[in-house]
Design goal:
With about 110 residues, this protein is mainly alpha-helical. It has one domain (about 5-100). Helices cover about 80% and strands about 0% of the residues. The protein is built from 2 helices and no strands. The two termini are about 25 Å apart.
């Protein structure tokens, strides 16, 4: 097996890893969308029935607000990990693109 074949095989592995990272990013966005949908449905369904007092309104919307906050937090973590993964793949690709002659130091 020549060095060129291993570079091509490694390039294919990098492409597969990038595609996998995009899939997880999509799943994180879908999950966040579901959280937002639940929040807005709680606003529409629960809040109008509890508008008698401010405390009842706050109590009825507090849990959905916590879920939305957690959704933002989890989405931020997922995007951060996604970007770190893409940066790692870019660094691996740069190392693969370097010729082996530079490693000798002569």
């Amino acid at each position: 097996m020549s060095g060129n074949d291993t570079n091509e095989k490694s390039s294919d592995e990098i492409v597969e890893r990038i595609e996998g990272a995009e899939w997880y990013s999509l799943l994180a966005k879908i999950g966040f969308g579901i959280i937002l949908l639940a929040f807005f449905s709680a606003l529409i369904a629960v809040l109008p029935t509890n508008l008698d007092s401010i405390s009842a309104a706050v109590n009825s919307i507090l849990m959905p607000l916590i879920f939305v906050g957690m959704g933002f937090l989890l989405l931020g973590i997922a995007m951060h990990l996604h970007l770190l993964h893409l940066n790692l793949i870019r660094q691996i690709q740069k190392q693969m693109d370097k010729p082996d002659d530079e490693d000798d130091g002569t």
